[in-house]
Specification:
The protein has helices spanning 3-15, 89-102, 161-173, 194-202, 213-221, 246-270, and strands at residues 23-27, 39-45, 63-69, 72-78, 106-115, 125-133, 178-185, 207-209, 226-235. With 271 residues, the protein is an alpha/beta fold. It has a 5-stranded mixed beta barrel. The longest helix is centred in the last third of the chain and has 25 residues, at 246-270.
């Protein structure tokens, strides 16, 4: 990755009308309905954007969508990239750098995750207050990183406190159960064993997934304020572990998504 490549991606999108978005949003597995709320949409498919990776996961549609959401210009990633698809972490986070270059001032991330904390139930939402990176790498571990910013990035508070506090306030007003917790990012794509779920609980994880953390690291590298929500799609109790049911996970994500959309759209209005 070079600055010139990022600049070419930005120029292409600006040529399509992606002008000065204020908020960038990354939509996770099964979480595509937010797109329906955007007005005056302009779309750019990933395979047409110079130097963009291509989406390979069937639950992700693979395009950037620009438009108006409650009076704010937004750019939304409908379909994200995962380490388990064979991309490196620089590719996975490339769109964050492009959205930042387009002008976003805030980044919202969503994901589907498994609940490790026994007090958290499927269909509920967790606000990320911290994370554990178990993906065995960093999107900042490359030779030319200094041209993009400081190599040694502080991660003492990776998620923006002001936006997180506002989300908690909104959840309370809207009667939405919003847990706060620690998200563990693993490589995948296989799901965890019973022993791995026990380990994750011991090291302090409240939920587990296969995304988000690389994007959060890059957002911090760019000094971009970020909030992230996990839609909890299954309960990972190692003593009562049922075989994984992917269609059910997608269904649970879809049912919980309107709550996530309410939280994000209300937050956008309050920025």
């Amino acid at each position: 990755m070079t600055k010139k490549q990022v600049e070419e991606s930005i120029a292409y999108l600006q040529g399509k009308g992606f002008e000065a978005p204020e908020v960038g949003i990354v939509l996770g597995t099964g979480l595509g309905q937010l797109i329906d709320h955007i007005e005056d949409k302009i779309e750019a498919h990933y395979n047409n954007i110079p130097f963009f990776p291509l989406a390979t996961v069937e639950f992700h549609s693979g395009k950037l969508v620009y438009g108006n959401l409650h009076g704010k210009k937004v750019v939304v990633m409908q379909g994200r990239f995962h380490f388990y698809e064979g991309y490196d972490l620089i590719d996975v986070t490339y769109p964050i750098r492009v959205m930042h270059g387009l002008g976003i001032k805030h980044l919202f991330i969503s994901n589907a995750a498994g609940a490790i904390n026994p007090a958290f139930k499927k269909g509920e939402i967790m606000l990320l207050e911290d994370h554990i990176n178990l993906q065995g790498g960093s999107p900042l571990a490359f030779k030319g990183v200094a041209q993009f910013g400081e190599r040694f990035v502080d991660m003492s508070q990776p998620y923006d406190k002001a936006m997180s506090d506002t989300l908690k306030e909104i959840a309370s007003q809207e009667n939405i159960t919003l847990h706060e917790g620690v998200y563990a990012a693993v490589v995948g794509p296989q799901l965890e064993t019973r022993a791995e779920y026990r380990m994750l609980k011991i090291i302090g994880a409240d939920a587990v997934g296969m995304s988000t953390v690389p994007e959060v690291i890059v957002a911090n590298h760019l000094n971009l304020p970020i909030v992230a929500l996990s839609v909890l799609t299954d309960e990972c109790d190692p003593d009562n572990l049922a075989p994984i049911n992917i269609p059910e996970i997608i269904e649970v994500a879809g049912k919980a998504e309107p709550k996530m959309i309410r939280l994000f759209t209300e937050l956008i209005q309050r920025l």
